[in-house]
Amino acid sequence: MKCILDKEKHVYKNETGIIVPSYSEIISACNFTDWSKIPEFYRNRACDLGSAVHSLTEFYDRLTYPDNEGRTQQYAESLQKWLFEKYQLEVDLSRYLNQWVTFLEEYKIEKFDYIEEAFASEKYFYATTIDRFYKHGIYDIKTGGKYNTHKLQTAAQCCAMLENNIKVHKRYNVYLKEDSYEVEEHRDNDDLNKWETCVNFYNLKKVMTK
């Protein structure tokens, strides 16, 4: 099943225009994390930072033109200015990009197989976006704290890719900070079973609350 993501509304739709539940929608229904204790302003700022860093790193990774005239840096600076104006963030986004570039260099990652690619599961009827995929490994970018649900997110991505006949051998989170980065591997294959339980719970909840 193919899906298209409306990035502005963050809604997935299949080929017939039917809305497909996202990972975020399903995991929220499970109530694993209580966000009510965090003021809405800070939640929104965290989301804005994540969106801005995702846009900046995506731009960097999609570059295909030569940089012999400094155009890469030029365009990156223009994009950073636009993102700053859009989100009004009080951080230096270039520092996050520098950490991402350091990660790519130290892990010797060259050209990604997939960048911000939407995948869907027809069996479980959900959709998710793969931040990066390289040599059978999923890399999910984070700019906030660590949560146990992150391993379920890479599990959801893994299940969707496997259903689309793409082999997945590794699952990672890449946590970006202004002055550092950290990579965490998710090795527990039982995460996939836990994710399937989440989807089944979400579907049951929808039926029982009609």
Task: Tell me what portion of residues adopts beta-strand conformation.
Answer: 15-25%
Overall structural class, as computed from helix and strand content, comes to alpha+beta
- Low-pLDDT regions: none
In total, how many beta strands? 8
End-to-end distance, in Å? Answer: 26 Å
Q: How many domain units?
A: 1
Total helical segments: 6
Q: Percent of residues in helical segments?
A: 40-55%
Largest sheet: 5 strands, mixed
Trace the largest sheet across and list its strands: 4-5-6-7-8
The gyration radius over C-alpha positions equals: 18 Å
The helix/strand series, from N terminus to C terminus, equals EEEHHHHEEEHEEH
- Average pLDDT works out at 87
Under CATH at level 1, the class stands as Alpha Beta
Keywords, separated by commas or semicolons:
Lambda Exonuclease, Chain A; 5-stranded mixed β-sheet; 3-stranded antiparallel β-sheet; 6 helices
